[in-house]
Structure formats: C-alpha cells, structure tokens
Amino acid sequence: MAKQAYVELCDEVCTHREILEKVQPEMPDEERLYDLAELFKVFGDTTRIRILYVLFESEMCVCDIAALLNMTQSAISHQLRLLKQARLVRSRREGKTVYYFLDDDHVRTVIGQGMEHISERAGGRKDEKEL
Amino acid sequence: MAKQAYVELCDEVCTHREILEKVQPEMPDEERLYDLAELFKVFGDTTRIRILYVLFESEMCVCDIAALLNMTQSAISHQLRLLKQARLVRSRREGKTVYYFLDDDHVRTVIGQGMEHISERAGGRKDEKEL
DNA sequence: ATAACATATGAACAGTTGTTCATATGTTTG
DNA sequence: CAAACATATGAACAACTGTTCATATGTTAT
C-alpha cells in the first residue's frame, strides 16, 4: 500500500528477483533517461514537427517558416530556440536574416521511424498472438 | 504585424515563392503531423521511457514494473495505458496478472537513435561549418 | 459468496508548456 | 545617428500532463 522501501516485488506470483537482477544493470543512468525524455519532448509538438519537416527540404529563415506555417514570428522563434537547445537544428546568420537548418541525420531517422510506426496502424496488424 | 492572410513571405530578401512551392507539397497532412507529435509525446516522459527500457529486457507485470521503478501501481498503470494506446506496448493476461511487452521494433530504433543523438553531445562536434 | 490480490480508472491538484503581446537586440541602409 | 527590418526574449495566461487518492473491475481460492 505505502511506498515500498527497497524493491519488494509483487508477491512471488509474477515476479522474481532474477528479473530484477537482469533488468537493473541494463538501465541507463537516471540522467541519461532524463535527457532522452527531454529530447523526445521536443519532438512531441506539432509546431516543432512541422518546422523540422520544412527544414527537411531546405534551410530557411525565421519569417519564412512563420509564413509557411501561418504562425507568428515570435512563436516560431521560441520553438526554434528549443530545437536548437536540443541540437536538432543549427543556425547561420546572413545579414539581418538567420537561416536555420537541420543539425544531424538522427532527426530524419527518428521522424522516419515515427512515421512508419503510425502508418502501420492503418495497415494490417490484426494478429494478436495471445488469446 | 497581424496574421498574414495567405502566405506572404518575408519581403523578398530571404524568401521566395519557389521555396514555398517546393516545400508545401512535401508536407504530410495535418492529421499525420498531429499523430506523429502525439506519438513522440509518449516518448517524452521519463517514467514511460523507463518503462520501455525495462520492457527491453523482458515482458513484465504491472506491479513488478512499479516495484522496479519504485513508483505506485496506479501511476504505472496510467502510463501503460498511454503506451498501449500509442501501440508501443501490448498486454497479455495470465490469471490475475497482466504482462506487458513491447509491441514492435520501432520503439527500439527510435530510442536507440535518441540515445545516439544525446550521446554525440558529449563527443567532439566542435566544427561549425559557418563563421 | 467472500476474501485477497492484481490491475484499471475517474477526479483533482500541482507543475509544465505553447502562444501572445510588448519590447529588446542586432543588422543594414540612408 | 535614425529608420527599417529580422530575430530574440521575458512575462503572463490558458491548456495540458503526471501523480495521488479513492475506488472499481476482474480473477483466483476458500
């Protein structure tokens, strides 16, 4: 009922110390897991996803992205800052305008895998291997 | 200042209709982009990331996950529901206990790529190709 | 049927997040 | 320098999210 002190697994029915001993050493540090979640949070917003998609095609300045996505310059600028902090985009200044572009290819892979995943939904996958 | 009616790009300095015409047809439907962001939102939480990592090793019942992560059964159950709705995990009942396991391999790929991305941070990458 | 256990779920509350608005910074041109 | 333009940023507010608590559902054994 209350919080378990150590790691008191549920009765002995379903769980075993064996699992614990197998799983725990494989877990990354708390800090890494936190950073990972922070990274995915950045992907977890429609505006930012749209920005990234736009940048798939070509580098672009802030006001263009704003125009393309039909949003205010301020909103885009705020989001670009987050994308930059997460190292998903970088920027380059040319006179008054600042061009943003994708940082590395993990962005493409991650988004690509995500797209695949949500696409499978529509497809078959009716087979449940359990009862 | 106010919202642009159509797609009025920023002056003519930086932007061009060409870009617009190139980018816009490549953009997925709003609905897909929304679903994609929703998917990544699911990855964007430490608890859920930790659950997924635990399930990398082996299927597991709710109370075991709760014990391993030192969280309440309720909290884990709520999160498992989200993971299930996102089709990242599935479940299988065996008597009183319900076992959860990873649904497909996109989970591994996505998390793997995410890990790679945050790891590069520590590494080199000091080269800025622009001024 | 009742008790015991594993899981699921609704309501509520605190903490977080995305946008807007106003304004600041930085750059170019006159 | 001042004006014009592109971008950045701080404050504030509404909307959303994760946990907790209480309780419901489902399963097994007595």
What is the strand and helix layout of this fold?
2 copies of one chain form a homodimer.
Chain A: H1 17-23, H2 30-43, H3 46-57, E1 60-61, H4 62-69, H5 73-85, E2 89-94, E3 97-102, H6 106-122
Antiparallel strand pairs in A: 1-3, 2-3
Helix pairs in contact in A: 4-5
The structure holds a DNA duplex (30 and 30 nucleotides).
The share of residues in helices of chain A is 40-55%
Described by its quaternary structure, the protein is homodimer
Give the beta-strand count of chain A: 3
Number of helices of chain A: 6
Shape of chain A: elongated
* Biggest sheet details of chain A: 3 strands, antiparallel
Q: Average pLDDT value of chain A?
A: 83
Beta-strand residue percentage of chain A: 5-15%
- Most extensive contact: A-B, 73 and 72 residues
Structural class by sheet pairing and helices of chain A: mainly alpha
What is the helix/strand order of chain A?
HHHEHHEEH
* Spatial strand arrangement across the major sheet of chain A: 1-3-2
Low-confidence stretches of chain A: 1-6, 123-131
Spatial extent as radius of gyration of chain A: 21 Å
- How far apart are the first and last residues' alpha carbons of chain A, in Å? 31 Å
